[in-house]
Amino acid sequence: MSVSKLASLRQLLSLCFMVLCCSGYCLLFDFDMLHQIERDLLDDCPGALMDDPPNLSESPQSQPSTTTNISEHEFSCHCCYDILVNPTTLTCGHSFCRHCLALWWESSHKNECPECREKWEGFPKINILLRDTTDKLFSEVVQRRRAEIQANPRVSRSLLAFQRYGDNLGRARTNQHKGAGFFFSGVLTALTVVAVMVLVYHWSTGTAEQHDLLISKPVSHWTPEEVVSWLDHLGPWAQLYREPFKHENVNGRLLLMLGDEELLQPPYSIENQAHRRAVLAELDRVKTLGVKPPQNLWEYKVANAGKSLFLLYALKRSPRLTILYLYLFDYSETFLPFLHTCCPAITHMDQSVESSFLNTQLEPSWQQWTEFLVKYLLLPYQLIAEFAWDWLAVHYWTSRFIIVNAMLLSVLEGCALWSLWRRTRIRALPHKMWNHLWKMLSQGFAFALLWPFVPQFVCNCLFYWALYFSPIINIDLVVQQLMHRETQAL
């Protein structure tokens, strides 16, 4: 082989060696880069490459289930000890079935946890996450229990009442200055302003003192004109004898000296026996009281300011106890006229007015007592309405306000009794009656102590408020009772 060929072969071998060396260096660089990438992955997610890859050939059934370690006790209600249905979580952290919580609330009337007795705030809502979990884990049990709940009318009624309670609570918080409550509060405010203005004007003109002069003035100081005015108040029949009293200038002292014989003889000549007995009966009342007896509501208020205010509020809050109070402590002056007006005796149609006036001082018959006791026990507000109806000719608008208020109070009392009966809590009625009796006695005693220190202006405002504005408030209460009877707690 020549030298030139050897040189060419040596150059070819050198070139091949260089190519192999370069290829080896490149492969070495690639492996180093792969190891660096692997080290970076291990640093970022340790153990990501340590686990064995999943065996795709295994079926899902061969994998262990995640629900095998979950027991039904962990998702059970502590009221019914069954799987939670519509779980409701309270502020204390305990969860119960919503229908169990509704039944507990309806029976106890308390917003507290059935387990720890901690009061909840606001209105409990359904725990959506816990509900979805129980629906997925125990779908068959939950569906069965929901069907049982829907088929039970008592549970459905309790759930409806509980939800209405929450709706009312939400409306009370979000709409405090809207709706009927705002309307009634505005009306009451306007009427209060009007009443105060009327009272101020009435007192400033002094008409009250002129109209009620005989109520506070002793009969021995009456002038002849005041005696004639007293005679006119007895009724239209008394005007027949007005001129003799005026001609003789009979004053208060002479009036107290008159008897049956003096009235029968001239110059008075009251020959009608019924007329003469009526005048003598009213004269006996004047001698007993020392002043003119009240002939209407306003005169009674002036003569008995504290008593009229007490009776007005007491008849509204507890009519039976108030009527019993009148029977025990004010029999002749107030109770007898009240009974004869509400339960009149059976008389002839041609009976004169003066005879009717005289009969109000007689003892009631057993028929009157029977009728009165039945109304007293069952419909006490009807007695008040009948009494106000008899005074329509004297107090036109005032009597109508009293009648409407008595009707509204009767509806409220009926709703309360129906709620007790529906909730099978009628046995609690004696206990509630005793609590009511104790409350009324304590309030009456407090009123008797504080009455001398209360300004007359405040008492008059309270009187007119209770007389004219209570029906407006009671209308709102009746609407609430009739629309949402289930949500009213006693």
How would you describe what is shown here?
The chain has 490 residues and is mainly alpha-helical. It has four domains: 74-174, Herpes Virus-1 (2-Layer Sandwich), CATH 3.30.40.10; 179-209; 216-289, Transcription Factor, Ets-1 (DNA polymerase, domain 1, Orthogonal Bundle), CATH 1.10.150.50; 297-483, no CATH class. The protein has 23 helices and two strands. It has a two-stranded antiparallel sheet. Residues 19-68, 176-181, 207-211 and 485-490 have low confidence and may be disordered.
Mean residue pLDDT: 75
**What is the straight-line distance between the termini?**
128 Å
Tally of extended strands?
A: 2
Low-pLDDT residue intervals, each spanning 5 or more residues? 19-68, 176-181, 207-211, 485-490
Q: What is the domain tally?
A: 4
Which overall shape is indicated by the principal axes computed on the Cα atoms?
A: elongated
Query: In what range is the share of β-strand residues?
Result: under 5%
How can the largest sheet be summarized?
2 strands, antiparallel
Name the strands of the widest sheet in spatial order.
1-2
Whole-angstrom Rg: 46 Å
Work out the oligomeric state of the chains in this entry: single chain
Fraction of residues in H or I helices: 55-70%
Total helical segments? 23
Secondary-structure-based class equals mainly alpha
The SSE order reads HEEHHHHHHHHHHHHHHHHHHHHHH
Membrane topology: Multi-pass membrane protein
Domain RING-type: 77-117
Subunit structure: Interacts with CASP8, BCL2 and BCL2L1 through SAM domain and also with HIP1, IFT57, ESRRBL1 and BCAP31. Interacts with NGFR; this interaction inhibits NF-kappa-B and JNK-related signaling pathways.
InterPro entries: SAM, SAM/pointed_sf, Znf_RING, Znf_RING/FYVE/PHD, Znf_RING_CS
